[in-house]
Amino acid sequence: MSALVLGAGGFLGLNLVDALLAQGVTPRCGRRRRSAVLALRERKVPLAQADLDAPDELCAAMAGCRTLFHAAGHYPRLSLDREAALTTGLRQMRNVLDTAAASGVQRVVYVSSAATAAPATGPSDERHLHACMPGLGTYHDLKWTMEQVALHENRVEVVVACPGACLGPWDLRAGTSALLYALARGLDPPHPDGIVNLVDVRDVALALVRLAQHPCPPRRLLLSAANHRLHELLAALAPRYGALPPSPPLSAAEAIRLADAEERRSLATGRRPGVSREIVDLVVHGVPLDAALSRSALALRYRPLEETLAASDEWARRMRFIPSPQVTP
Amino acid sequence: MNLDERIIGMIAQLSAVRRAEIGPTDRLREDLGLDSVCSMELLSMLAEELDVDIALEEAMAVTTVGGAIEMVRQHLGARADAV
Q1: Residue B30 class from Cβ within 10 Å (0-12 exposed, 13-18 middle, 19+ buried)?
Q2: Which domains, ranges and CATH numbers included, belong to chain B?
Q3: Contacts of A270 in chain B (CB under 8 A)
Q4: What ipTM describes this predicted complex?
Q5: How distant is the Cα of A47 from the closest Cα of chain B, in angstroms?
Q6: How far is the C-alpha of A177 from the C-alpha of A169, rounded, in Å?
Q7: How sure is the predictor about B59, in pLDDT bands with cuts at 50, 70 and 90?
Q8: Which of A121, A268, A276, A299 is the most buried (most CB within 10 A)?
Q9: B60 to chain A: closest CA residue
Q10: High-pLDDT (> 90) share of chain A, %
């Protein structure tokens, strides 16, 4: 397999690179001018400039590649400017697909999000996709819009993977993990309640590789190991980190107000918001998922949560995101 | 421009704080507003521009501007005064 990974330096991207290397495939790894590439340099993989706003760079990066993994879909740091996020996301997605079609790429494996799953009477599966822009927040609208472009692409084969909330090693940005890291540091993170669909990032990475190799893959696939209620999960995990049980959850309206205020503060100071609006939206509007198709079509066996948490904790301790347990003599 | 000035110049590209106000004791996160991803971008820039291999774990242990300078100096060794 000759493959290019866009977003190779990110959380999922690094795990995907590892999954490919484990199968004997050395992917070309796309990077922006300003990218965190230390982990890629450690892996001794070839790097290629591939800014999603630079079609010439994309073209050079895709040259000779039959498979394109697109794990670099626009993820705005803040949700305050919905129109700008949609404009950027659409433009970059079109750049990627136009270039892939012109470059002879045979298959694009595009990483979308479980945020595009629509509610159903029971757990949602691949049939349940919002028929129009969900209007649940910038992140949901952006992911839905980009996914629509991917699903309507007819010049090159595109398969769409929709992972739930990923946990595991290499989460430098600390998205979903941020709440767990806060617990482990003895903090009491404010949070809403709702459904979260947890999945081990390494299982997602393996699923992406299998989607690339599958002779006739499903066009769209949900990737989720289990559904949890967030507050129950945090309460159950608090003892794991020697933490007190978390305070009761915020209402959806309170959580959205807090996240919006945090994002405005972030805009003014340049510092990361304490609570991200997209995480709040994902939790508040989360739906239970049935990812049976991924198990059958890709022969996936999702790791149990304990195994995922063990790997996530071990990595986060090495990186000093969370403290190591005190050893008593 | 000496090594320290080059490194502070790179930090200034990623931080909202003006270059003239950045000093060795500044903390990357608390004082300069660099989150973990920005810090990794900074150390990636240093690794690439100065051609040094920095392990991720080692990079994560760096918390101040002076710490970043010291880490790069150690990696460069005798080359430190030549870059």
Answers
A1: exposed
A2: 3-81 (1.10.1200.10)
A3: 15-16, 33
A4: 0.76
A5: 12
A6: 10
A7: confident
A8: A276
A9: A319
A10: 87
